[in-house]
Specification:
Arc Repressor Mutant, subunit A, 6 helices, alpha+beta, homodimer, DNA-binding
Chain lengths: 142, 142
DNA sequence: CCCATCGTGCAATAAAGTTGCATAGACCAA
DNA sequence: TTGGTCTATGCAACTTTATTGCACGATGGG
């Protein structure tokens, strides 16, 4: 959940036309405290007003391409989506429960790694560093 | 590439019957210096002797379940497979080139993170830590 | 008004992986 | 040897997740 983010402004800052659907997709992602799958987002949106599944995928691609949303891989098949790191959100690792499929955001301090130093010596372009822990969450443990 | 691994012994040590197909799948994975997709593995195997696509998937599942092979996620849709960490192979991060789809194994020292300490305080079970860098590889850069 | 562009919907398609079912060989007990 | 059971494999069908092609309506500038 991002209380400091104004989603319309975020869209405009990326020079994207603000449409209802784009704002709604970004809101669902930004108002949630953990990343969601495209199916989750689609279902949530459907509850308030009709939207097409393909439109959701296209908007997700768009928001990822413009750096507003981050595509996060899971140990499973579907991608998850969360707000991309920005001034209010530092990059952080995620935990993925392979039993219930819920993803958790971990504290940015909890696991640190010095990728800047590594990037200096790497002979390619690094766009993103993803740290994911897989396992069974607290709820699914008992 | 693992020069120290005897694939038949690895299978037997996991109490798996040694079949031609299982040995061949494990060999393709172990003899390669970077992780491969199921499709890559299937194609490679086809070149030496016929095998069914489904058999490859089933063997991969089996080897992953027994901890001989590691399933590695990419920024894309298909999973990649590499030898699981063992006494000869320390866990290490990977780099995934989103242009050519090639995955590289990075040096275990290159990016370190203290997940043991974190695990102590986490109220769930952590089975695996995956660190992946996404970007464009040296070859695709120019 | 005309035209171009854009956002969206809907149907079809694609990519990656999974499931159901049949069969052939291995193994074992009688 | 026979009969029974189990396992690995193959093949077809299917599922899940995502993408593409095409149509259409809204918008906005000349
Ligand atoms: Mn997060
Ligand atoms: Mn590796
Ligand atoms: Zn769970
Ligand atoms: Zn490349």
């Amino acid at each position: 959940m991002c209380l400091q983010c104004d989603y319309e402004s975020l869209l405009r800052a990326s020079r994207l036309d603000v449409t209802d659907n784009r704002r709604r997709v970004l809101e669902v992602i930004g108002n949630n405290s953990y990343p969601l799958s495209a199916a989750d987002i689609f279902q949530t949106l459907q509850r308030s007003a009709a939207i097409n599944r393909v439109t959701v995928y296209r908007i997700l691609d768009l928001l990822v391409a413009h750096g507003l949303v981050e595509r996060i891989s899971t140990g499973g098949r579907a991608a998850y989506f969360g707000l991309a790191p920005n001034e209010h959100h530092r990059p952080h690792p995620h935990f993925y429960c392979k039993r219930c499929g819920q993803m958790e955001c971990l504290n940015p301090e909890s696991l640190t790694l010095d990728s800047d130093a590594f990037g200096k010596t790497f002979p390619g372009r690094i766009d993103k560093v993803e740290v994911r822990l897989d396992g069974i969450c607290k709820n699914c443990m008992r």
